[in-house]
Design brief:
Function: Plays an important role in the elongation step of protein synthesis.
Family: Belongs to the eukaryotic ribosomal protein P1/P2 family.
CATH architecture of the domain at 3-58: Orthogonal Bundle
Oligomer: single chain
Order of helices and strands: HHHHHHH
Distance between the termini: 44 Å
Shape: elongated
Number of helices: 7
GO molecular function, one term: ribonucleoprotein complex binding
Strand content: under 5%
Number of strands: 0
InterPro entries: P1/P2_N_sf (IPR038716), Ribosomal_P1/P2 (IPR027534), Ribosomal_P1/P2_euk (IPR001859)
CATH topology of the domain at 3-58: Arc Repressor Mutant, subunit A
Pfam families: Ribosomal_60s
Helix content: 55-70%
């Protein structure tokens, strides 16, 4: 991670901790106050746009918890359509075998 990315990340965390809206100008102000040199404004605008409307504290608290409820909700549908899904997978594997380069007469060193 570059110095610009780290500086922008830390500045965004500081603003989020204080409950201040994260904008490119505020990120740039914090970075300059910290004495970090040569940070292009594109980094602060990228971070500001990426974090716009998001709760940074909530993002930090939910790191690594992606979609825990989705498999539980789809469990009933998967049980009902399990046989159909298994048949589709078998068909896809058979098609892949038919299209191999060996069957067409092409080899690695031809």
């Amino acid at each position: 991670m570059s110095a610009a990315e780290l500086a922008s990340s830390y500045a965004a965390l500081i603003l989020a901790d204080d409950g201040v809206e994260i904008t490119a100008d505020k990120l740039q102000t914090l970075i300059k106050a910290a004495g970090v040199q040569d940070i292009e404004p594109i980094w602060t605008s990228l971070f500001a746009k990426a974090l716009e409307g998001k709760d940074v504290k909530d993002l930090l608290l939910n790191v690594g918890t992606g979609g825990g409820a989705a498999p539980a909700a789809g469990g009933a549908a998967a049980a009902a359509g399990g046989a159909a899904a298994a048949e589709e997978k078998v068909e896809e594997k058979e098609e892949e075998k038919e299209e191999s380069d060996d069957d067409m007469g092409f080899g690695l060193f031809d």
